[in-house]
Amino acid sequence: MSWGEALGRLGGAQKTAKGVSLYSRFVNRPAGRFLAAGSYVTGLTPNQVTLVSAVFSFAGIAAVAVAPPTWWTGALVWLALAVGFAFDSADGQLARLRGGGSPAGEWLDHVVDCAKTTVLHTAVLVAFHRHPGHFGTGADVLLLVPLVFLTASTVTFFGGLLTEQLKRRVPAPGGPAPAPSTLRAVALLPVDHGVFCLVFLLLGGGPLFLWGYGLLGAAAVLYLPLFLAKWFRELNRPAAPPAPGPRPAPAR
Would you say 29 and 192 are in contact if contact means Cβ atoms under 8 Å apart? Predict the structure, then answer.
């Protein structure tokens, strides 16, 4: 199969756009589709693509912690994180193109995502501690910003993942799936990982980065109870009645 044929087949193997922000829908997923097609042609497996995603992501994270916080560093960090995020989309698309993923592949993908989320905010905390004059984080209370952001992100990640797994046991309501909401897609932008990656372009700006990072952290905290309430309602809904069928014959 050629790259063009693989790309065409991937167009019909996409997840639903419901609950997906505009960035993931129109930027990250299309980028991942191109990468998945290229990975298929070159013979990469979904697990190998997941590891490529990890290499890019953790290279950017390491730069946040150890490199000087300049504008050039910020641009390289953003590029590494954005490419890693695109490959994170590509591994699932490649798995569907190859006929479906495996439990081990899904496990690896989620473990890498969890580690990426945890270590990225930890790297920001290290940067704030190492360069207080640059970021304006001389007050110890400002070091709590990455910790609060990390807590909200971790609970959101775990809650969403657990909800996805448990919903497989809950009968889905009948009828066609609702069309994705553009308003919801816009509202989800502040908590999209791709938008979060963009804030590192402000790394050289010091206080500008602190403000941008802090605002996204505040959004994560504000959205968390909304997500938790929504997921709880979805899992707590009454089970759908069994489908009607022929009655069993009376015992003789």
Answer: no
